């Protein structure tokens, strides 16, 4: 009998604790229940310790850490390759150059500008060509002592006089409907596809021969006098981390 009474008593206690615990969860936002919560805290804490086995959270497993390390290694390889391409390009140029890191970006569907950690004290001036991995990606714009802004290709304010190699056809590289194009092309020629586009040297903004990209599909209609072609570049300006400024002035 004593054992039976003890079991019933213990069961009653557990039921009471469970009810109080549920009340605590349901009515925690009510002012009256806040008093009840404080009153039942010691009991519910004991209940939690007795009936819940909480394990410490492990943020990463060994496999996760291996994957993260592999991802970091791949990022380092990509950055090293980018820097190697930069060096290969500047070694082939007759211009002086300044390497720069990008410290902030405004890159969206409309504006494409960045700030670099080089300025007038490094010999940077306005409208100097900015290169990434051998491709023209912009020009310097606002110049301060320690930093400068760069207008990137694809920004509405970017313009470059260009020529399509092997075709003796000129045009203007600019942005249109969120994409990069070579505009003002006077001919329709399917043979222009995949031909390289370089700066022409006209307009005195960029020297001649800087590679911009290759000709893509024609965008303009057949009856237009001047035609527009898409321009493709392998450089993803959204992900640029470092560039080279050519000191052409």
What is the topological layout?
Layout: H1 2-26, H2 31-51, H3 62-91, E1 96-107, E2 112-116, E3 129-132, E4 135-143, E5 148-152, E6 160-164, E7 169-176, E8 179-185, E9 196-199, E10 211-218, E11 227-232, E12 242-247
Antiparallel strand pairs: 1-2, 1-12, 2-5, 3-4, 3-12, 4-5, 6-7, 6-9, 7-8, 8-11, 9-10, 10-11
Helix pairs in contact: 1-2
Helix/strand structural class? alpha+beta
- The stretches of 5 or more residues where confidence is low (pLDDT under 50) are 27-60
Strand order of the largest sheet: 1-2-5-4-3-12
Task: Give the CATH H-level superfamily of the largest domain.
Answer: Rod shape-determining protein MreC, domain 1
How many angstroms does the end-to-end distance come to?
Answer: 104 Å
Major pleated sheet: 6 strands, antiparallel, barrel
Strand content: 25-35%
How helix-rich are the residues, as a percent range?
Answer: 25-40%
User: How many domain units?
Assistant: 3
Give the averaged pLDDT, no decimals. Answer: 76
Please give the radius of gyration in angstroms.
Answer: 33 Å
Order of helices and strands: HHHEEEEEEEEEEEE
CATH arch. level architecture of the largest domain = Beta Barrel
Figure out the total of helices. 3
CATH class term of the largest domain: Mainly Beta
Kindly state the number of beta strands.
12
Global shape? flat
CATH topology of the largest domain: Thrombin, subunit H
Question: What does this molecule look like?
Answer:
This protein has helices at 2-26, 31-51, 62-91, and strands at residues 96-107, 112-116, 129-132, 135-143, 148-152, 160-164, 169-176, 179-185, 196-199, 211-218, 227-232, 242-247. By secondary structure, the chain is of the alpha+beta class. The strands form two sheets. Strands 1-2-5-4-3-12 form a six-stranded antiparallel beta barrel. Strand 3 (129-132) and strand 4 (135-143) form a beta hairpin.
């Amino acid at each position: 009998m004593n054992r039976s009474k003890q079991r019933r008593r213990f069961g009653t206690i557990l039921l009471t604790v469970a009810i109080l615990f549920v009340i605590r969860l349901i009515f925690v936002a009510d002012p009256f229940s806040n008093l009840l919560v404080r009153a039942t805290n010691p009991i519910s804490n004991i209940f939690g310790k007795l009936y819940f086995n909480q394990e410490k959270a492990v943020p990463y497993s060994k496999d996760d850490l291996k994957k993260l390390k592999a991802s970091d290694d791949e990022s380092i390889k990509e950055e090293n390759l980018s820097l190697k391409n930069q060096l290969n390009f500047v070694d082939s140029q007759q211009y002086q150059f300044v390497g720069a890191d990008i410290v902030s970006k405004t890159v969206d569907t409309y504006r494409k500008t960045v700030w670099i950690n080089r300025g007038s004290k490094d010999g940077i001036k306005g409208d100097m060509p900015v290169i990434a991995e051998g491709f023209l990606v912009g020009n310097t714009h606002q110049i301060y002592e320690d930093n400068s802004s760069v207008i990137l290709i694809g920004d509405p304010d970017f313009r470059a006089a260009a020529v399509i190699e092997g075709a003796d056809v000129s045009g203007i590289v600019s942005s249109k409907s969120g994409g990069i194009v070579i505009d003002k092309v006077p001919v329709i020629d399917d043979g222009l596809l995949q031909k390289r586009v370089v700066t022409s040297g006209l307009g005195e903004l960029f020297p001649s021969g800087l590679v911009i990209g290759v000709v893509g599909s024609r965008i303009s209609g057949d009856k237009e006098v001047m035609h527009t072609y898409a321009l493709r570049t392998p450089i993803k300006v959204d992900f640029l981390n470092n560039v080279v400024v050519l000191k052409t002035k």
